[in-house]
## 1
Amino acid sequence: MLTNMKGGLLVIVALLAFMTGCSEKAVHHGTLLFTQAPGANVSVESILSGGYKYADGLRIVQETSGSMEILTDEFTSARAPEISYDGEIMVFSGKKTTADAWQIWTLAFDTKSLTQVTSTTENCTDPVWLPDGRIAFSKQITDDSQVKFHALFTIDPSGCCEQRITFQPHDDMNASVMNDGRLLFSSRQVYPERGALKYLAMRPDGTKAEIFYLPDSSVNTLNRACDTGAGKIAFSETGIYRTINFSRPMHSQEKPLIHGVDYLQSASSMEGESIMCSILKSGSPVFGIAMINKDSQPDTSSEIHDAANHLIEAVVVRSRELPRKLPSLMNMDDPSGYIVCLNAEASTIPADLTYGKSSKIQVLDYTGLIGETEIESDGSFYVALPADQPLRFQTVNSEGKVVRGPSSWIWVRPSERRGCVGCHEDSEITPENVVPKAVEKAPVAMIK
Amino acid sequence: MKKGKIYLIVILFFLLAVGYAAFHKWSVNHVTYITGGVEHPIGCISCHVAPERTGFLANMMNEDYLSPINATANHDGSRLYVVAQDADQVIEIDLATNQVISRIQVGDRPHTVEITADNKTAIVSNQWANNIYLIDLSNGAITDTIATGGGPAGMDISPDGKLVYIANTYDNSISVIDIEAKEETRRYQGGNFPTNVTVSPSGDMVYVSSQRTIPVEHRAPIMSEVTVINTVANRVSDRRYFQSAHIMESIEFTPQGDMAIATLVRPKNLVPSAQIEGGWMINHGIGIAMSDGRMAQFLLDEPNEFYPDPYNIVIHPTGKFAYVSHSGADMVSVIDLDAIRTLLQNASDADLVRYANHLGLSSEYVVKRISTGANPKGLAISPDGKYVYVVERMMDRISVIDTEKMEVDHSIDLGGPTRITVSRLGGQLFSNASHTYHNQYSCYTCHPDGHEDGLTYDLTGSGRNLANVQTLRDLNHTAPFKWIGTNQSVYKQCGMRFSIFVTRTESFSPKNLDALVAYIFRELTHPPNLNRLPDGELTDAQKRGKVMYYRTVTNTGMEIPVKDQCITCHNGPSYNSTIMSDIGTLKENDDPTLFDPANLNNVYESAPYLHDGSAATLEEVWTKFNPDDKHGYVNDMTKDQLNDLVEYLKALPAERYYASDQEYEVTTGQLH
């Protein structure tokens, strides 16, 4: 089955285990986990498009010193392993029978004890550990839009205290945690029409969501990204390897050419700025696993291939430095969140000049207008919005004609305070240091 | 053993057990109270020994560090002279061997050293002694002491070597010293807290940067002055301003003379702090005063990654690169000045406004970030431009950057203590921004030199409950903290709520919080008060003001209620108390609250005043914001009496500067 495992990977994994203090770690540290997808059932296209995510017959395999062990024998299908920061627990998504919905599970390496985390009729997938020990994942849901989409949730490993953290009719998926403690996830609007893919970043409590990276509109998939720890975010974009700088993500895309590799499916960070990736080599019918070094080249001595199976979503079992534990800004007793906009006229999107200057800001939900208020003479407005629901803004002139908008969907969490320089402003611009007129008054409540 | 003895032992054990249990319960409650209910493995030593300045145990726990702050190389590049601020020393280093070859004891709190063109004399500014020393470098002897204005800091020598220009931080003046005549020949009015000086290559212009904004209307954008002295006309020829910027710690002309470049900080104190993610709290960069009269600013930050507290700048002899130390990020930025020139060449006024707020633009002119040791402050460049020397204040070390490779080549140990004490760790934390969201600001950013930045911030992000930054100097034993006195300790002040509203990232670990408390209480001190006579006595006006301060009856002989007497709320060594009061200063955008009386030591250097910074001067505290005598009974005072009172208040020094008469012991109303 496993036809081409080279000694190099073992050396690297052993070295990694040594560097992470193997003498004090359990034997599972330094082993490799990946999702095995049968090549007969799962096409390359399906992997590139993300369509494989709910396929049957997937399983999680642990490789230890050349021997393979299937960790998810009890499951019809299982995938997306992620390792806790202490290297002791795997979280993954799986389903025991074909009739089941996909759920989130954990497996403790030392006791082999399996715990079901979510218990729902909806599909839950792509879990990731948060720095505070909770788990974030995507759940397929519907809301008043009547459209199915994925929202992000968090939950305790015990199954307690599930909480939804994204509130927009988008497919919010592939969450990962950056070293600054924020979640980075792919997001695509699905209602009222399908939108472009982007990465959003937000705090783990669902506050402060903002665009982190906006790829070309032709991009079909953005896979789970990884923070390399060296100032780079690495990911796969429609199967092609990309990196962006953490410090200037909107304007720093690099397209490293990986010699002999057609596609790259997943990336997870390793020690020493290397990336563990799933790659499709030229001429190969299935994805294998390889290390990509900091110069974006594969370590050919470390490749693993299996002629019959795709090997994807690879991660090394190891303890890692905890990202920042960001404190929550929320007060769940407050039904509102607050937005102060410094200048509604500041925008990178041209206004419809037919209708002149904006005089009011309007807030919309799925059904339409829920409130409006005057824009101050300096362009500022300050509103209290109903928390935890999808909303959009638009500006109108004195006759009610739309000048800008409607905007893309946004949400605010209870008591969250968010600010914007303008509407779709350049995210690299910081505000001029002046008091916005709007905050000299109480926020205007936008309640239907 | 007799039964009685056994009973006695049992009873003693019982009492000890009960006593221990009671003490344990009390101490747990005490710690819980002190830390604000947050779980914290705090020990007695954390609060009662580590933060103290005196005492056997405190001395055992602490070390005398050098804390270098600035340096300069001599003109043949053979020596480096380093100012060790806490040790009151100038340290001489042989750059051929990288060894310390002499330590020269200088005046109180030295700031800067400059070397005369003949390499024979060092000039050292002693910031807390209000003078400069001339040092004969052949033998290390102090040959002359020359009086300056208050708080001499940055200096520069004219190209002909005859004059040294000195920024006097504490009295907002600029001294001109004739080096040969050894006397001050002129004194100019500077900006607010002038900090550093640069003389143009031709010698006809002197630019002086300042740390604080000039006084502006309440909640109006700040503006900090670059004072321009025309050395031919011998006058201040211009006062140029960097809008929305302050803390210009240093300024330097390019060799071409086309730009004078200052390090600066761009606070967003007027903007609700609702989106720190986008740089809505504080940005950091450089300001450029161009020879064509334009003023430009460029950020050295990046989106998601900030480089706080730019302190010093040096420019390569070719004028192509500038090096800026970020004391809050342990980093030196290398700036391509030709890239800056290109950006400036055709920039419109709108472009300049955009550049000043553009986080992404730095990728066009910052060509390298070079990591350094803790708290890089002063920089010096070798005459040939091959090396930049980085003063690592919290490491007692110099790092040497190879400018061609743009990397640290080697380090020079200055010989300070190797042990990192609790307080020293606190100093490193205080000056480093890694505990704020995306490293956007350090404690130092809002509390430069442990003081305050003179700004009022909207930390709730709602336009309400604005907070004027308070000094951290001489804070021990003055609890509670915060304007509204809700924090019974710095543990609580800098605890979880602090991380939610201020740092916006993971809160301090208990170990780091201990260290921070120790550093703040032990190390941050007020400078000497300059408003007294040289012998420390009060002037006549101050003496009259003291009478007003202690008075118990009005001008008409009516008894002033105790609660309305100054000394009721402002007494003791810090002129404060725990009496929470409504002093009638609440504004419409404040939630109802009472206020904790502010400490008044060195209050003269803490403008603006009141919790929201609405009083521009001490006078305004009473002329504009005390119509009903809620903040002391003053409305019967004549103008002269109020002026005298203010003069006295301005003369209140820190506790350790009091004369032996302990005049602050006013709780009994006793006059001295």
## 2
Amino acid sequence: MSDSSHSIPIGKLLRADNSQFVAGCRVRELETPAFGSLVRASLADDTDVYGLITNISINDDGLVRQLVSGVSIPGEYTADNRYNRNLPVEIHVLTIGYQSEGQLRHQLPPRPPLSLDQLFLCGSDEVARFTSLGAGYLRHILRLTDQPIEELLVAHLSQARRVQDSLGNPEWYEDACQRLIVLLRDDYMRLARVLDALSELE
Amino acid sequence: MEPQANLSPENPPIGFVTGGGLEANLQVKLTVPAQTVQEGAFVVMDSGNWRFYGLVTDLQLAAVDPNYASQLNSQRFSPRLARYLNQNTLYTNLAVMPALMLEKGPDPASPEYPAWAQNRPEKVKPITVKTVPDHHAPVKLANAGDIAEIFGKEDGKTIFRVGETREQGHAVCLDLEKFVQRSSGIFGTTGSGKSFLARMILAGLIHANNASTLIFDMHNEYGPSSTSSDTGQPVSGLKQQFQSRVRLVGLGAGTDFGALHADFQLEIAHKDITPEDILQLTQTLNLKETTAATLDALQTSFGENWFTEFMNMRGKAVEEDEEGRRRPAPDSVEAWANEAGVHVGAAESLRSKLSRLMNRPYLVNSPASNGLAEIIDSLQAGRHVILSFGRFDSELDYLLVTNLITRKIRDSWEAATNQYHKDKKVEPRPLVVVVEEAHKLLNREMASQTIFSTIAREMRKYYVTLLIIDQRPSQIYDEVMSQLGTRISGALGDEDDINAVLSGLAGRNALRGMLAKLQPKEEVLMLGWGVPMPIPIRSRRYDDIFWQELHKDGQPKLATTADYNKFLGLGDDDTD
């Protein structure tokens, strides 16, 4: 199991399959996870499953609908609904690798995490460790069809680049960009959108 | 040469094979900047136990998707991303014409190597390509060892360096032994450096001394030293450099060689002119169809003196007999025609037309010496002859003299060869007849009339070949062009000329563009039977350094007394 000293618990698993999973958290816990962040679900068998936050969704319920349709909502009602509601905030995670028996791999795990497994936000040291293995895991992101991958890439690469740059490894970002170009060069429109987005990071 | 002898460091790969075949060229994806490679580059590809040799015939810009090429990426994306994008999506494709392959065997460190080494032939030679390298076979620019493997290594004698590869400057040689075995040609437009190239090849031939050369020097530029019209620099002549090994012959008296003196003047005896020589001037003299019959009658009447006798006849001379009747004078053409049963008009017309030859000062009744025999003796004795036409540079002079001398040569060499086949004693000395402005002798109309097309087609087995120097190869008869073994061409602009130089060769389409884009005065394309594969080269400069390098080995190695005698020009007369 990964050293979790710098990891921050952000929720518990709701549902999962091999390639993605969804965790739930309370609204008050929502200040730390961010779109594109690297997260880890720790399984009972000492396997860690890594993923990127691809979406954070807040679902409505009957009470919210009633409140929204009201003329004015007192502040305490809003606060009560946000912090004491029964429905969790859903954090959607794309699986991009796992660690088993101390070996980190940029492949899908043999088994998905189980419900109520704890989800952690990875700290800088874990981001550094995961990304230092190379940029091959970016191929998992390109699988997404229902998400704006260019925005996800910008969000994730800016995090990873900051960590790698701080370690004196600016080549990592260059390698990652080249890897992306190689992976996406057969799809001009998609690559152009990604490079447009990445150009804003420069 | 053994493949293992290639100790030159290998060049790094420049790309890899992605497709293609023997017919349609191999496709190679370039992994280095396009400017690293030029059209005509000599490349090698290793695949399995074989090394393949090929020639880059085209470079084409390509992209993974046309959109990457059509948009200016640097304006749309950040400079760094645009650079990465261009590196990974834009590339260059090479079209490589595979030419030769050489079995190099398995890796010497592999367990298969000893078995292969035991069974391989003693001398592994490159063979014409018969298969293709695998997909993704690495492609490298040929190194000096590869080029020496194919074109030979300069030996100061018959393996003669004619230039260097354009990219890396590796020496490219011509095997002069092979070069003289078949007729060959040097082509190029005016100003393409053709004359310097010809001088250089001739210097190599004379230095190698494996064949005699007879140079018909129409413009008096090969024997004496001269001055380059382009640079104003002095240009060494062959006579000056090779001294007694080259005999300088002036046509008629008074040929000016500057500071040099002619070894002798060529005067041609009337009796050496045969009806065949006249017939070969049919077009130039505008002779009629009746000429052959008239000439035949003249020879019947007067034997070998026919020309003198005919020239002594008077045209329309008449005299009165005792009874006052007008009749042809006894020394008139008409009188002879009547006696010989020849049409009078035809005979008088021929006499009139041949009067153009009568006033050629080099045609004399009794020359002081037998210049024709001396030329042939010199050539058979291993010397080289430059016949300068001096002031007699008209087409008529050129056609008459070259035909006449060459016919004598054909007779001599045929006799010598037949003798050799009988007694196996003295093998005839190979002879190269160098013909400038060859289209004047070998154009479609003339080819059938001159002796040169016969030499190009048939004289190889009699040890005589042609070296044609011309700027309009398209004007030369196709049948002659197709017989040329080695072709060395400078820049050619005209499409017809380019097609003519490539006639009868495989891979013509691929070579066409290469020939059109040669750098004038610097680059030439060598191709044909005499070279293992076509290759464009930066030609060697014909300057003082050239002569220093040529002479640095001193005189050619002389193995036997016979060689030595030949070198001194003594020869032996058994071949006469």
